[in-house]
Amino acid sequence: MAPVNLTTEAVVISASALGESDLLITLFTSHTGKLKAVAKGAKRSTKRFMNALEPFTELTACLAKSRPSGMWRLDSAVIQDGHESIRTDFNRFLYASLCLELTDLWQKEGIRDPVVLELLKWYLSEVSSSTTPLICSLIFKTRLLKTAGFMPCLTECKICGMSPTDNPVFFDRATGEVFCKRCQKGRSGGSLGLGTAMSLDFMGRAGLDKVGRIRLSKDQSLEAWQFMKQLHCRHLHKKPSSYKLISISR
């Protein structure tokens, strides 16, 4: 079989050691979604890739494999945006690391998803300069869950279809689906401030050119963060390790 060659736009999700001299790179690409590639000799030769294999980096990657079913090999990479400000700010680094980990956990290899790539590039650009990385990360988490098909509707009662108007809004802890005050009676679950629910709904549906304007109070930010964390962990059936490093308090 003829070898396969690919030049593609990509974001570096992670890099890990593979043997004494190689690195295993996880990329999210415009061509085929998430893929893993071996960067031969990358640990020994710092000049060859020139910091292009750091997480958060947007690059143009040249890849190849000897047969269609084989492992990708990363032959070269040209940095388009290194997002250095993420790596030099500990707070931004923690939030961005979580969002990359969530991308890795939610996305399957070999499935092209231009919506997620656009979201990821938007997020890295925003969090690089934002003074509110928590809000940027909430927007990312909400939209990522929506693309996966697990973001509940927060503006309609699951039972009667009416918009909840009472504060707080009650929700099912397993699915996040909300109930109005009348339909909630007799059900166990959690509660979410009406303003927080509306804000999360806006995060999930507004255009990326508008969604960054949203502002939340500290209490709303904490409430929204815990709600989204719970949903991601429940649907992934695990707690992403990056959550252990992020502490949010009032």
The value of Rg in angstroms is 20 Å
Which fold name is given in CATH as the topology of the largest domain? de novo design (two linked rop proteins)
Structural domain count: 2
Give the mean pLDDT. Answer: 93
Describe what this molecule looks like in 3D:
With 250 residues, the chain is an alpha+beta fold. It folds into 2 domains: 4-82, OB fold (Dihydrolipoamide Acetyltransferase, E2P); 85-152 and 170-245, Recombination protein O, C-terminal domain (de novo design (two linked rop proteins), Up-down Bundle), CATH 1.20.1440. 38% of the residues lie in helices and 22% in strands. The protein contains 9 helices and 8 strands. The strands form 2 sheets. A 5-stranded mixed barrel has the order 1-2-3-5-4. The longest helix is centred in the last third of the chain and has 19 residues, at 218-236. It is elongated and about 65 Å long. It starts with a strand and ends in a 14-residue tail after the last helix. The mean pLDDT is 93.
Features of the shown structure:
250 residues; alpha+beta; de novo design (two linked rop proteins); 2 domains; five-stranded mixed barrel
